Every structure is written in structure tokens, then in C-alpha cells.
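The authors assume throughout that readers already know how a fold can be written as C-alpha cells. A single example would do more here than another paragraph of explanation. An entry of this sort, consisting of the sequence and the corresponding C-alpha cells, reads as follows:
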Amino acid sequence: MFFCGTGIAAVETVRFFFPRVVFHPPTTFKIGPPGGFVSGSVPDTYGVILVDPRWKRDNKFFVVRAEDRIYAIYARCTHLGCMVNWFEGEKTYRCPCHGSEFHSNGVNFAGPAPRPLDRLKIFLDVDDQLVVDTGTIYTVKHFDDKNAFVAV
């Protein structure tokens, strides 16, 4: 019995010197200059010129170029949090879990989603590069806040 207790104490002592570390991935991502988000096409019904899905898989956001601004849409459905997909041919986002659908600007129009897709903080850094911060989320009431978009 004594040796069992001593063994456990020794293991716990060794574990004390090697703490478990929780890794948190970065929340800010440089995505390039604003001029890199230009399309030759005319705006759609909602003023969207381009939806760039390059960051959806790894960072869970889309970059949207509208007529007068650039903003980042969080790729998480506002119903239960599934990752939405962009369908270029139909100019819509769709949730594969419960069928919610969103226009190109992120506004919901079908399915159980109760509100538009959230937006993320986006700003220009000192090098005139767009930076998206996934740690700050804006809901529909704050879409016109200072850091919810970059004017172009």
C-alpha cells in the first residue's frame, strides 16, 4: 500500500514539471491589400461584387467586396453553428445541416436561421493590408460600426 501511494506521488510530481499547455490559434489574419478584391463584374441585387471563399476552410470566413466596402462574413450559420458553403452559381450561402440560405451579403431568406450571418472585425494595418480578426464578431445591429467593414 505504501509503495502504491509513493508511486502515484512520484508520477504527480513529474507531471507538475510538465504542465499541459493549451494552444490557441491566432485570431488575426492578413489577407492582402484592398485592391486584390476587385472583380470586373457588376454588383448583384445586394451590391456584392465578389465573394472570396479562400479563407473558409482554414479560418472560417468569407471576404466580401461590395460596391462601397469590404467586409468579412463569419462562415458559421446563425441557427446552430454549422459551417455554411458559398454557391457561386446561385450567389447564395447554404447551411448543409438544416437548409438555411443566405443572400450574397449574408442576409437570411430561407430556413430556420433567425438572423443574418455575423461579420468579423476587419481593418487596414500600417502596411495598408487588410486584417481580419475572428475574435471580434458583429451582429446585424453593428454592421455599420467602424471596424465591421473597410470603406473603398
Q: What stands out?
A: The chain has one domain: 24-151. Residues 2-16 form the longest helix (15 residues).
